[in-house]
Structures are given as C-alpha cells and as structure tokens.
Design goal:
SIS domain-containing protein; SIS_dom; 12% strand; 597 residues
C-alpha cells in the first residue's frame, strides 16, 4: 500500500474548509462513525478478528488484575504497561490513571503506591501537556524507559500495550522489539494501531482522519474506547465469574466476547448521542431547546475568539498582547479537566497554534493529575481572561461534589460578569441519574441561565451543550462513555475553530510543526498534493523553507528535523516555493508547445 491510511486525505472532509459550521459538525459526525462501521474493505470494531483480539487482551488484563489484588505472598508482581508518543502517550496516562482508580474502588484495596497499570510517554511527564514529538523517533530511549519501569515495579510478568495509531513511532517499536527478543521478562506484547501491516495483529481500520493525519481525533478516540472495552470486559469477567472458568455451561471466553460486544455497542451509542441528542438548556426550566444546534453554537463562539485580531496575532514581528486578543480556555475538575488540557496541548503541533491560543485549566492543576495537595484554581484562571475570550466549563455529571460545583459557579460569575468573556457549559449527563454518587448539576446551571438576565455588565449569552447518554459508565467508577462524548465535543470545537481561522487547506493542516519523521514526510506530502508537484520537488521546497535557501550541511533527515524545530511556518513557505516551481514548470510546457507550432 503506497500510503498509510492514517496519512490519507478523507474524501468525506476534502471541502471542510468551505463548509458552514453546521456542515463541519455533520462531516465530523460521519467521520467518527467510521470507528464502528469501518473503512472500505478493512475490518471494523465489530468484525470477528477485532473481537477475538480484544478477548485475548481482556483475558490477559484479567490475569494481571487478579495477581495484583491477591493477598497471597506467592502471587507474582503483574503489571499492564501502556506506552505511546504524543496523543497515544496521553491516552496511556489517562487510561492507566482511570483503571487504577477503578480497581481500587471496586476491590477495596488501599493505595499502597503499587499500581497495576503503568504508563510510559515519550519525552517524559512534560509531554503530557506540551508537544515533545522528537522523542518519537528514538527506539533505544523507548526500550530503556520500559526497562526502567519494569525494574522500578519489580515486575515478574505482565502485558505491554504499545499504542501508535499510524505504526510510525520508533519509540514504541524499540519496546516491542526488545520484548519479542527477551522472553525472560515474561511480558506479552500487543500493538494498537490503525494501519494494515503484515507483522501486526489485525485491528480495526477506522479510516483517514477528518483533518489529514490528525490522529488525535479518530485514532485517539478509537484507541481509548478499545482499551476501555478490553478493561471493562476484564473487570466484568472478574465480578461475574468468581474465578470459575464456566458459568451456566458457557465458557469464560464466550462470556468475555459477549461483554466486549455489549460494551462496544455502548460506545457506538455514545458517539451517536454526542451529535444527535445534544441540546441546550432553556432559561426557565430544564427543558431541551430542540431546534438549537448547541455544538455549532459552541464552535462559533470559540472560532470568534480565535479569529479576533488574527492578523496581529500571526505577525511574529508584532509582540502579542494577551490581554487584548482572544483565546479558548477549558476549565474542569478531574477527568473532564484533564481531557480539556490534553485537547489544548495538541493544537500546537497540529495547527501551529500559539501555546496561549487554547489552554486547559484543571482544578488543583498538576496536583490533580498526580493526586497531591490542593491549590486554588480560580486564582490561576482569572488573571488570564479578557472580554475576547471563550471559556468552556467542562462537566461530567454526577461526579462533582456540591463544593466543587459551587467553586466552578463562582468562577463562572467572575469570568462572565467581571471579565466579560463568552461562556459555555459542556455537560455530559445520564438519562437516569439515580444510580450515581453525586446529584446532577443541571438544576443549578438552569438556575444560572434563569438569572443571567440580571447580569447587567455582560449581555453575551451563556451557551450550554448537554448530551444525555443512556449510561455514563461501562463498569462502576469508569466513566468511559462520558469521557468519549466529551472528547468528541472538544475535538470538534478546536478542529472546526482552527478550520474557521484558515489553518487548513481543504482538510490538510498547513502550519504543522515539523518535529519528527512522521511530520517531516507529512509536510512533503502536503506540499506535493496541494501544489501538484512531485515528492522530490516538494521535499526540495520543504528543505528550502527550513534552511532559508542555504545549503544543508547534512543529508540526514534527523538533522533537517532538528533545524525545522527552530523555524516557524515551514509548510506555508514551502507551499509558496512549490507554487513558483509549478508555475515555472507549466510555463516551460506552454513554451515548448508554442515552439512546436
């Protein structure tokens, strides 16, 4: 196959840059549906080959969890390691955090610092919030990071899950290769990705991304939901079978298979509900405003902030005045807040966005991520906000205590009435909220809307996007359905906002940061495709943009990437250079034709 599927242009979204906001939402909805219906003739999430692969992963996870929860001194130290680069590494972190919390709550085991699930991200902990793409190309570093973590945990056996959506991360390849060579480690390995390769287990092909190569979208969503499916099946198997291999004459593998299909169906329904069931709260009672398009309204609000003073913001010769230009801010608690800052961190390498353009704030900040002492998140957010900003309050319903909700409402009043910013509440709720620990936030948010007519300072409307799901959790304490829903909304908001700002040509990003092998060759492909020149000419133009027409002192791609990381707007400049090349070639063709006549 000449080109990886994850690097192809999706024909569905090839004109997304000229679509209306409503049209963009419809296109993204159709693209996300490919996570379940598949792409062309390749297997989907519901194909038997995928189900069987997930069964094996779930059963191996089950063994590791049972070893971890065992009180017997003879039980081996078992771990599940999840590793990736960029988006994949952030998903590994997010899932490990969630799964450890879930099994401790379910099985009542105290936090002794010995976690069953471990994560590895290329570039270390800083890569969770800022791009460190260069680390992706270092297989030896990947191997050493894995061995270090195995040693720290005294792991005797386990499962390694390497996550690389496009099968392009040498960092993960180094880890997989070492485990395949050193069987004494007693760690099975599996590779998660969405391209057909001869040496990897078949996994679903979910089709090209809505924005070409942006695997933070479908690739990230599909990876997370499939991991959640395997984990949920492992947990339910433990809860339902009580260590028996047979229940009512049905084999354990068959039980796990049925659990996997059921959970996959839940995620498919979640994706549909995100786009088709979202509604805005009415200002008088909790009543869906059926004829509004809430996700489109949220995108429009965010894009207005990003487009504000765009000419000044993008002129590197003029210093940015952060107090006057527009930004997008996400504010949330727990997993909702973490999803916000992950989405924000990915806008820099994807669209060449300024690090201040889209930012995520988590209640308690880094302390929330590492479950340490508390800080006052309000003091972190308020100084940043101005009247051109859009502030999104992220909520997974029934997970917030009254105290935390009141703090978010206090911050909302300050942002709206003192800072005069645009505001929006994104709430994922359950159709029935009777079975959850905390009360629903919807009555209080509806009360806010009722009182907003009394806010004399800020006449801007407070938007709301509420998505009611059949369930928030596939298993107790794992809010996988709600998290996928919120991730899809956040991806839609930042994707469509940057498209509205003009950061794509068709569905191709045109200002990506050339910071690793994958992005270097993606830049060449973008120039070649858009300007219709050969890949050789496209690479020449990319190199001219990187070196400013000076001669490179090395032919190594790694050297070009190191230089490119210090240069801005490599792809836009290369496109202009390729345009002149294409024009020159066309002129020569016409001159030859004239001479022939």
């Amino acid at each position: 196959m000449s080109q990886r599927i994850t690097e192809r242009s999706n024909s569905l979204t090839q004109d997304i840059d000229i679509a209306s906001i409503d049209g963009m939402v419809r296109l993204l909805r159709t693209c996300d549906a490919q996570m379940f219906c598949g792409y062309e003739t390749f297997p989907s999430s519901f194909d038997e080959s995928t189900i069987q692969s997930l069964c094996k992963i779930a059963l191996r996870m089950k063994q590791c969890i049972e070893d971890w929860r065992s009180d017997e001194s003879s039980a081996p130290v078992s771990n599940v390691f999840m590793s990736g680069c960029g988006t994949s590494g952030r998903i590994a972190y997010f899932c490990a955090r969630n799964y450890n919390y879930c099994i401790r709550k379910l099985f009542g085991k105290a936090d002794d610092g010995k976690d069953c699930f471990q994560y590895i991200i290329a570039g270390g902990v800083n890569a969770l919030v800022s791009p460190q793409e260069a680390a992706e190309d270092k297989p030896e570093v990947g191997k050493n990071d894995l061995l270090s973590l195995i040693s720290q945990n005294n792991t005797e056996k386990g499962l390694f899950i390497g996550i690389t959506c496009g099968f392009s991360a040498a960092y993960v390849a180094g880890q997989i290769m070492h485990l395949s060579e050193d069987k004494s480690l007693n760690i099975d390995s599996v590779l998660f990705g969405f391209n057909p390769v001869e040496f990897a287990r078949e996994l679903p092909i979910e089709g090209p991304e809505g924005i070409t190569g942006s695997t933070r979208m479908k690739g990230g969503s599909a990876t997370k939901l499939l991991l959640d499916v395997a984990f949920s099946a492992a947990i339910l198997s433990i809860l339902n079978n009580n260590d028996n291999c047979y229940t009512n004459g049905i084999s354990l593998t068959h039980n796990v298979r049925e659990l996997i299909i059921h959970t996959l169906q839940g995620f498919e329904m979640t994706t549909r509900c995100t786009y088709d069931s979202a509604f805005s709260l009415g200002s008088e009672i909790i009543n869906p405003k059926l004829f509004e398009k809430p996700i489109s309204n949220a995108i429009d609000m965010a894009s207005q902030s990003l487009k504000h003073s765009a000419a000044t913001r993008d002129n590197t010769a003029v210093p940015r005045n952060e107090k006057e230009i527009g930004h997008i801010y996400y504010v949330g608690c727990g997993n909702a807040g973490i999803l916000g800052f992950i989405d924000a961190s990915e806008c820099v390498p994807t669209y060449g966005a300024h690090p201040m353009d889209v930012r995520g704030f988590v209640k308690n900040g880094w302390n929330e991520i590492f479950q340490s002492e508390k800080t006052d998140s309000n003091r972190e957010v308020l100084p940043q906000v101005n009247s051109n900003d859009s502030v999104f309050f992220l909520v997974i319903d029934n997970t917030l205590s009254e105290e935390v909700l009141n703090e978010m409402i206090e911050l909302y009043h300050e942002v709206k009435n003192t800072k005069l910013a645009s505001t929006c509440w994104l709430v994922v709720t359950a159709q029935s909220t009777a079975d959850y620990e905390h009360a629903s936030v919807l009555p209080k948010i509806s009360e806010l809307l009722l009182n907003q007519s009394h806010d004399n300072n800020n006449t801007k409307k407070t938007h709301t996007v509420v998505v009611p799901l059949p369930k928030l959790t596939p298993v107790p304490y794992l809010y996988g359905y709600a998290e996928l829903c919120l991730k899809l909304m956040l991806n839609a908001i930042t994707t469509a906002s940057h498209v509205q700002k003009g950061m794509t040509f068709g569905n191709r990003m045109i200002n990506l940061k050339v910071s690793n092998n994958k992005l270097y060759y993606r830049a060449i492909n973008i120039v070649s495709t858009i300007m219709k020149v050969s890949e050789q000419v496209a690479e020449e133009c990319v190199l001219r943009a990187i070196y400013n027409d000076t001669t490179p002192d090395s032919n190594l791609v790694s050297h070009h990437i190191s230089k490119a990381m210090t240069v801005s707007k490599v792809v836009p400049v290369a496109l202009l250079l390729a345009a002149s090349k294409a024009a020159g070639e066309n002129k020569s063709v016409w001159e030859n034709k004239i001479q022939e006549h």
